[in-house]
Design goal:
Elements: E1 2-4, E2 7-8, E3 11-16, E4 25-30, E5 35-40, E6 46-50, E7 65-70, E8 76-81, E9 88-90, E10 96-98, E11 109-110, E12 112-115, E13 118-122
Parallel strand pairs: 1-4
Antiparallel strand pairs: 2-3, 3-13, 4-5, 5-6, 6-11, 7-8, 8-9, 9-10, 12-13
Length: 125
């Protein structure tokens, strides 16, 4: 896990893009204790969501299974499935796509920017 203390206004430098592995998660820890899960997708996009599984409270989303979901209209979205009970979320919106029979609980998403080869995540108060 990467501990993050550098901040520029609301944007926090988390890691170098080169530190991420495509289609695998990586956890980062803000200095206030907030954990985020980062995902480098096959198309080069980086997504950030809370690392806390809303169904179990465990900080495991960065260990989740990366995939995609296709819809009837032909659109496709990147997803992550919990390594514990396999609920699946849209990595763009954080909305649960497969709740496994449970109530719908969503993941918090974080804006991401790439600057000079580094991943920046906007921290929310």
């Amino acid at each position: 896990m990467t501990t993050v203390a550098e901040a520029t206004t609301t944007w926090v430098r988390v890691c170098a893009v080169a530190d991420l592995t495509p289609e695998r998660g990586r956890a980062a820890l803000f200095d206030d204790g907030t954990q985020v899960a980062l995902f480098l997708l096959a198309d080069g996009a980086v997504r950030a969501v809370t690392n806390r599984d809303p169904y179990t409270g465990a900080h495991v989303i960065s260990r989740g299974l990366v995939g995609s979901a296709a819809f009837e209209d032909g659109t496709e979205v990147p997803t992550v499935a919990s390594p514990l009970h396999k609920q699946a979320w849209d990595l763009v919106t954080g909305h649960v796509l497969r709740a496994g029979g449970d109530d719908e609980r969503h993941l918090r998403t974080y804006p991401v920017a790439i600057d000079d080869g580094h991943v920046l995540v906007r921290r929310r108060a």
